[in-house]
Amino acid sequence: MDVDIRQNLQNTLDTLNSIVLGKPREIKLALTAVLGGGHLLIEDLPGMGKTTLAQAMSKVLGLSHQRIQFTSDVLPSDVLGVTVFSQIDGEFSFHQGPIFCNLLLADEINRTTPKSQSALLEAMEEGSVTTEGVTRELPDPFFVIATQNPNHQTGTYPLPESQLDRFLLRVQLGYPDSASERILLESGNRRNLIASCDAVLDGEKVKALQHEVSLLRVSEELLDYLQRLAEFTRQSEALRYGLSPRGVMAVLSAAKAWAYIAGRDYVIPEDIQAIFSSATDHRLRDQSGKTMSTHLSIGEWIVTQVDVIN
Amino acid sequence: MKANKHPFGRLGDSARFRLWLNRRVPPQNEITLKLRNIFILPSRQGIFFSLLMILILIAGINYQNSLAHGLAFLLMSLFMVSMLHTYRNLSGLVLSAGRAGRTFAGDEVDFTVTLSCAAGRDHEALEVCWLDHLVTQADLIDKSVSVLRVSTFAGNRGWFDPGRLTVETRFPLGLFRAWALLDLDFRALVYPNPIAEESPPILDEGDSDDFQPVRGCSDDFAGVRDYLPGDVIRDISWKATARLGEQMTKEYSASSGAEIWLDWYQYENISDELKLSHLTYWVEQFSKQRKPFGLRLPAREIGPGLGENHRRQMLRALALFGLDQT
Amino acid sequence: MIALAPRNALAWMLIAQLVVLLPQLLRFPWWISAVCFFCGLWRVLIFQQRAAYPGWPIKGFLVLVSLVCLVVQWGSMLSLEPWVGLLLLMFSLKLLEMQRSGDVYQVILLGYFVALTHFLYDQSFSGSSYTFACVTMLTASLVGCQQVRADLRPWLPLRKAISLILQAVPLMLVLFVLFPRLAPLWSIPQQHSMTVTGISDRMTMGSISELTQSSELAFRATFQASLPNSQFLYWRGLVLTEFDGKTWQRPPFQPKNRLSRPGRSQPDWLSERQALSEPIAYQIMMEPSQQQWLFTLPMVMPAVSSKIGLSRDQHLVSFEPIRSRFRFDAVSVLSFRTDTGLADSQQERYLTLPVDGNPLSRRFAARLKASRSSNQAVAQAVLDYFREEQFYYTLRPDRLEGEVVDQFLFGSRRGFCGHFAGSFAFLMRAAGIPARVVVGYQGGEYNPIGNYIEVRQFDAHAWSEIWLQGRGWVRIDPTAAVAPERIEMGLQAAMQEEGSFLENIPVSWLKMRGFAWLTELRFQISAWAHYWNSFVVGYDPVMQINLLSRIWEDIQPQDLAHITIVAFIGIIVLLAIIMLRSTNSRRSSQMSILFNRFAALFAQLGYARAIDEAPLDYCKRLMSQRPELAEAIQDFSSSYMTRCYGNDMSISVDALDRKINGLKMRLLSPML
After folding, report:
1. Closest approach of chain A CAs to the CA of B18, in angstroms?
2. How do the domains of chain A map onto residue ranges?
3. Which of B165, B302, C387, C516 is 20 to 30 A from residue B79's alpha carbon, by CA?
4. How many CB atoms lie within 10 A of CB B247?
5. Which CATH architecture is the domain A216-305 placed in?
6. pLDDT band at residue B240, thresholds of 50, 70 and 90?
7. How much is the ipTM here?
8. Does domain A3-210 have CATH number 3.40.50.300?
9. Which of A222, A304, A309 sits opposite C595 (nearest CB)?
C-alpha cells in the first residue's frame, strides 16, 4: 500500500474529526461511502451537524462541489440543467445544472417533490444526465452526499425504498457527547473552520484510493458469511423482504473500504459487522408485530442472529 | 439414566477382541466417527420389528392380499432407511478428550468430553458413557459444540485409564443401535483413599499438642477458615461471615513456630498402602484447617506450605508413590 | 432402573392408536369400542395424572370378560373376526399396563398389525391411504420414543416420520413390483360374517327388486376390442330350472352335468356347441359377492384359469366363493347354438311343473299351443300378449299371494323382470316347450375414461330361455316386450316416469346425470378406483410376470428373487450415497472446523463464543480474560486471520492445527 496515500487518508480523517467533534465512527463511515464508490445519506434531526459534515467532506476531499438546498418548489431542471435558446447564436444550448460537479451536496432531499428526487437519483445511478434525448456524462468521481430529516417530520416526501437503495450507506449522527458539546459551545460555529482548512485529497487521489479499495482480498469464508447474512434476511419472518443483490454488493464494497481505512489489505467479518447496520438499515423493513428487541436497529439485530463461523 | 451393558456382550472381555479393536479404533485424542469406527446392529426392538414385518408378509401371502404385501415392504424399507439414519446420526461427530478430573480411589471421577460436528447437522439423542457405567445424554441440535461431563468410578490410586468410551444412538426409530467404542487416551490422577486415624504421624519435636491450631490464646492472627462445629463463638469472624455468606472462624497460628511434618517413617507395622491412605487423610485434614505442613516420604520431601497447589502437589506425590511416574 | 416412556411419545402413541383403531371399531360390535374407549380414557387420565394404573384384579377381570364376550359373539375362534377382535382388545388393554418405553414399543408394534387388518376389510384407494397415514402416525410415535428435547420441537416426530416414509417409498415400490409373489403357505381363518351380495340362486317373484335399489358395484368389464351393442349385454349368471309354484331354483347336482374343468377330460356336451361368429375377449373384475358364480356374455368359452369351471348350463363357476375382488379373462361368442340335440330326459326336466296350481295360466298356454303351429309362434304369441295387454314394468309391483303366475298374468299385470321371466317360462313349460329362467345382469354403464363397462346391482335382470328344435336354447326377454327402454337405455331411463330409480337412496351421484361435469368426475373417480384395483390391489404373480417380461424377455418366476435382491441392495446403496453426499455438501469449510475446535477448547473453560462474535473480537476477549495465554492466542489468531481471510496460503492448516494442540496441552494438562 502506498505510504503517501495512506498518510493522506489519515490526514483526511484527522481534519474531519477536528471539524465535526466527537463523531469518529460516523466520519469513518462517511469516508467509507466515498472510498466504496457510493453515495452517502446523512439522516438526522435539523441542527445535528449534517450539513457541516457534508461541507467539511467536500472541502477536505478537494473536489469541485455544488450544493442544492432542496425545497418543495425545486424543479428537475434546477438540478440537471436546462436547454435555452440563444438569440446570439441562434441555436439551443445546454446550461449545466449544479449536478455537474464531483461532489453534490443535496440538502434536505426529502423536502422536495418526488419528481425532483427521482431526477437526482436517476443521475446518481447512471452517472450521466439525459435531457431532451442527449446524454451527458457527469464528472468522475461523482458523489452525492444527501441529508434528510427523519420522515416523520412535517413537510417531507419520504424517499421510496427503491431510491434509498441507491445510497451505499446511511449515517445517523445523533447527539454529541457532553465533552464535544462543551468545546462546540466554547469555540462557536464550526462552519468558520471549514473555510480555513485545506484540501487534503483531490479527485485523482480519491480515484486512486477507490481503485486500491477495490483490490482488497476477499476470502471464501468471508463471502460465505456475507451470503449467510443475506440468506438470513431473505428467510427471516421478522423482515418484510430480504436484501437485494445490489444491497449485498453494497455491504461488500463498504466492508472493503472499512477494512482499507483500518489499514488491512483483506476483509474480515468484523468489517462487515461494523458497516452492516449502516449499509442495510435503509434497505430493509421489519414486519410490524415481529420486531426484535427495541434497542437494536434491523441491521444490528441481523448481525446478532447469524453465526460468523459456519 | 441407566446402566449400560457391554455392546459386544461377553466377546468384549476377550483379549483378542481388544487387540482387534485397538487396531481398528486406535487410541487418539480426537476421533471423528465414520464408517471405520461405527458399529451398527438391530436393537431388540428392531428384531421384534423384523419379526413383525415377516408376520405381516406371511399374512399378505396367505390372504393373497397385495396391500398387505405393500405394508410389509414399506416396513422393510423403513427398517433399512432407519438404519441409514441411525448411522448418519453418529457419523461426522467429532469427540475430543477434555480435562480429566481428580478423585480419591473408589470415588467417581469426571472426564470432560467435547462433542462437535459440522454446522447445520443435527445429532440427536446421543448417549455417552464408560462401559458399565452411568449414561450421559447429549445432543447437538442447533449447535455444533457440546461439552459433556462423563463420570465413572476410579480404581486404585495412580494413573487411572477409564478404558473405552461408548457413544451410542438409536435415533430416529429405535430399531437400530449404532455405537462407537473410543479410546480417547484419557488418564486421570487418582489419589489414595483417605482412611481416618486417631493421631497424625508427626515427628515429636516438643509438645504434641502444638500441631493443633491454637484457638484464641495467641495474638498471631493467621486468617479465617470455614466454621467447624465446636468452634468457640468468640472466634467467629463476623466480618468475614457477612462478606462470604458462610460462617467463618478466625485462626491463630501456634506461637511455638515449630514446623509440622507428616512423616512416613512415623508408621510401623502397617502396609505401605495403608500408610498412604492415612497420610492422604491428614493432608486433607490439615488443608482444611489451613495449617502449614510438610510431607516426608521415602526419597521425596515436600516442605511446609499452604494452599491448593501445595495440597495437590502432596496428593500427587502420594498417588504416584512407588509407581512409574509417567 | 426403569426407563419411563417420555410423555411426548405417549401423546403421539395415543393419537396414533386412536387413528389406527377407528376404522376397525366402526366395523366391529359396539362393545369392543366400549372396551377400547374405556381403556383409552383411563390411560388419558393416567397421562394427566388424574388416575392410577389399575391393579391386576381389574386387568384380569377385563381380560376375562373380553375373552368371554369374544366367544359369545362369534361362537368359536375358527373365523377371522374373533382373532381381529382379540387383537383390538389386546391392543387397547395393553394401554393399562403401559409404563415403560418397552411397553410403548410393544403397543406400537401391535398397532402396525392392527393397520394390517384394515386391508382385510377395505382395499379401496381411500381406505389404503388412510391406513398408510396410520402407519405414518405409528412411525411418528416411534420417533417420539427416541426424541430428546421434545418440549422445544413437538412436531419433530411427525416431520421425521413423513420424511422417513417418503425415503422408504422408492424401496417399497421396488419390492412391491419385484418381490416374488408366493401361493398361500397354509390355510387361514376366513371372514365368515360377510354378507352375501348380488344375485341369489332363488327367484321368488319380487326378490330382485331389492337389488334394483342398490347402486353397489357388481363388476367391471374391459373389452379388448370394441364394445358389443347394448342389446347383447346379457351377463349370464346362473340358470334356474326348478319351479315349485312360487320360486325358481337351481337344479340339484347331477354327475352327468359336471363342470368342464381345465386340464381334465372334456365332457361330451361341450362338443355340441357351435360358434357362429368371431369370439370377443374381455376381462372382468368382480367385486366380492361371497358366491361362486361368475357373469359372462353368452356363449362363453371354457376358461383358462384353474380356478374356474364351465357349467353344463353354459355359465362360469368359480370353485371358491368370491371373497375378495376377483379378476378373470373370458372369451364369448355372441352368435351360437347350444344343445341342438337335447336328450329327451333332459327335455323333460325343462318341462316339469308342479302338479297343479295356476290353472288360468295353464289353460291360456294350452289354448295358445293349440292355435299356433310352431313353438316359436307360441312364444311370439305370449310376447305379443305382454305387449298388447295392459302390462306395466314397475319397481313397485303389488304383493302377490297364492297362485302367483295367475295373479300376475290376469290380475295385477304390474311387475318387473322377474315376474315377466318367471311367468313366461311357466307359460312355455305349460305349453310343452322346454324353458328355463336365467338370472344375471343386463346392460351397464360405459366409462369412457377407463374404457370399461361398469355393472351395478340395479342392473340385475332375469330373462328366459326356451329350447327350439334345431336351434337349441334361444334367449327370450319378455321384459323387452313390455319395456324396451329398460334393455336399450338402462333401468334409470325406464323408471324416469315412475321416479322409483334408487328411491331409497336420497342422494346419489348416479341420479345426477343432468350435470355433465359431475358425471365426468364420477367417471374419473371410478376409473381411478379401477386402476387402483387392477394394478395395485390386483397385482398378482401373473401380472408381475407380464409386467416384468416387458423389460426382461422370457423372465422366469425363479429369477425374481435374484432381481429383487440386486435391486434392493442397489437402492439402499443409492440412498446411502444421496444421504452421505447431502451431508458433505453442507459440511463446513476446513477453516471453520479449525476455528470451532479452537473455540471448543475455550468453551470448556466457560468462554464460549457468542454466535455473532467474529473471530478476531473473540480472540481479543479471550486475551483479556486469560492474560496468561494472550501470547498463544494472539499467535493463533493472527495466523488464522491471515490464512482464512487474507488467503495467505503460506500458513498451513497443519501449522494452525499444531497451534491449537499447543493451546490444548497448556489448557487441559492436569495442574502439576
Report:
1. 38
2. 3-210, 216-305
3. B165
4. 15
5. Orthogonal Bundle (1.10)
6. low
7. 0.86
8. yes
9. A309
